[in-house]
Amino acid sequence: MKNRKNVVRGACALTVAVGLIPGAAMAQDSGPKLTIGGTTYTKYLWGTQRDQGALYNFTTVPGEGYGDNGIGTELELLLNAKISPQVEVNGRIHSRFNQNFWTNFGGFGGRNPPTNCTAGDCGEFDPRSNQYIKLRGMSVTLRPGYLIDSALIGATDLGQFDPFVIGRVRYIDRDNAAAILLQGSNFDRKLTWDAARISLPRLWAGPNFSTGAFHARDAAYGFQAKYTASELFDVGGIFQYANDQEVNAEDNNFDDGRDLTPRYRNGVGGLKAGLHMGSWLDVRGAVYTSYSNADPVLSPANFGGIGGYSAVLAGHHTDQTYMLNASLNDPLDVGLSFNFQLFSIGADYVAVMASRREADVLLTEGHDGSFAFPGPSNASYGIYKGNPTRIGYGGWTSEAQQVATINVDNDFTDFDEPMAETAIGWKGVTANPVYTNGALELGGEYSFITYNTNWQAYGNDQESLNNTTYPGTELDSGVGHNFRTAYQPFQDKKTHLVALRAKYVVDVLKGIDVFGKFKYIHETDKRLNDPRFLPFQSGACAGGGVACDNTLVNEYSPGNSTSDLYRNPDVITNSQGETGYQFKPFDNIGDDDRLLDYTTFTAGAGYQFTDDLYVSASYSKFFADLLDGNTAFQAYNNHEMASGKHNKNQVLVKARYILSGVEFGLEGQYAFGTFRPDFGDGYVVQYADDTIAADHGVAVGSRGFTNRNGGWNSLEERNFDHMRVKAFMKAQF
Questions:
Q1: DSSP-based three-state secondary structure for 477
Q2: What pTM, to 2 d.p., does this model score?
Q3: Bridge partners of residue 595, in order along the sequence
């Protein structure tokens, strides 16, 4: 009897429980939900440069370090909480490679106090090597269902805006920008709009890479709207205003608070329109205008000479940018399509929040990343002791992305990533035909580029070259285009670029991908092209072992001369007893002329061995026949000269393997080649002594010359050999 009652009670309880399960599930569905996912990413670097400053091949940030050796692991936790249909919370908790080598053994030990922290030396006492985890990407999104579509409070990548005005920064900091972002729509979404208040990044968003001492209120305000009238036509506009303020030092009455005064202001406005004639024609145009005003007291009036560094210009500037794009989609029905672009980016165009990388604003593929710095070995200031190559002889292994800012960011990148380069001042046209026929794909390009920065003495012959508002950064010398250099004091430059790309799938086995590329760049720059800008008067250096007369200074305007930049050489006697000038006097407008013929070929093949494994191999050849000034010019006195013949080879192997949610990747590279210098004549060759040999890594007795600032340029043929590997494992959970 007792057992029977227990059975009945159990059956009743089970019936009630079963009845409650749908209600419980329903209640659970309507309540808050927290989803946790993430990624672990392990990177392996091996290279013959033997650098171990950090787990990235490249950075320009002082003290951050760079390297091509080491293993490190990152952890990223992705948090998503749906509190209700109207409220959603997102966030990331993320570590960073930086100097978190496996050899740190958990980040313990190290220097205390932490000073000169590279290669993980400071261990647990520095966040770059103590395996810290940072809060990133934290945001709350509201969808009230009235007035606006959504409101985001917190982190955003700014990708919904325009890279000419407000754009992405770089992938590792993509959502570090913090904002209040409102989005809305009207008229059945024919009208859409975005409005944002974005806190200015204090580390770089202003003159001299700073927003000053008081930064808590510094912000950029953005608004954009787009109206789609029909499938054929749309029009839009965008506006951004950045305001960097400081506490007013003249306000001494603290009883009513402190007044603020502007340090830097930047306004950018743009109008865009699109015409879409069905599937065969698409035309888009845009015009932008910018205003940039830096207070000469609260921010630098200039940046210390022609090679200064800054994220924006000094002083007051306005300028415009124009873009016109057209695409013809197979108009002849034969598989041949055409893309065209006309562009003009103003020399003084400034948008402090424009995209710094990850946004290719031009159709042209531009320069290659293989030669990224002035020197043949990609050394930023390679003529001085202790200035080794940064990214390595191989450079970056792809063409460049163009961005509409001088605040270009290639920091914390590896050699397998694309290089970004500034396009400020570029104007020209690009034609890009594309042909497809079955397994065959062909693409081509012709670009003609001239420059809004073609000027003499920065376009103002009444000022000293050292009193310029334009930051020259690394200045434009060397084999390629220095990626963040838009300005040099003298320029008369033109660029022609021709490229052809091909891919074909050979119907063998599972299909073999065969690909190739040809690219040719012809670039000229007369630089200083008016004799009145020569540093000294004719006859100042008579030759024959007679010292130059340095009193015969040539002024291009009262009190202004280039003689401070291009001072005359001393008369020296070398170790062989030969007497003459240390370098050629700058007495001819052709002494700084640049002429580049750059050719590259690539051929390769890839094969899908299994559903999970794809492997490719390629070979690239680079020829650069370069005249980049002679010893009178000497690459603005600071850089390793690159005039001569460059012959570079590159062998590349790539592999990708995917196994149930885990991805493995590998890229291995072997780069080798030669550089035969040709620096002209008019000077006495010097021979390296023990000190020069030790300081610059050259053989005792090897030929070269010492430039104006004491740097050594070798005249010997150089042979380069560089191997490097990057492998990774990415697991998502």
A1: coil
A2: 0.92
A3: 524, 627
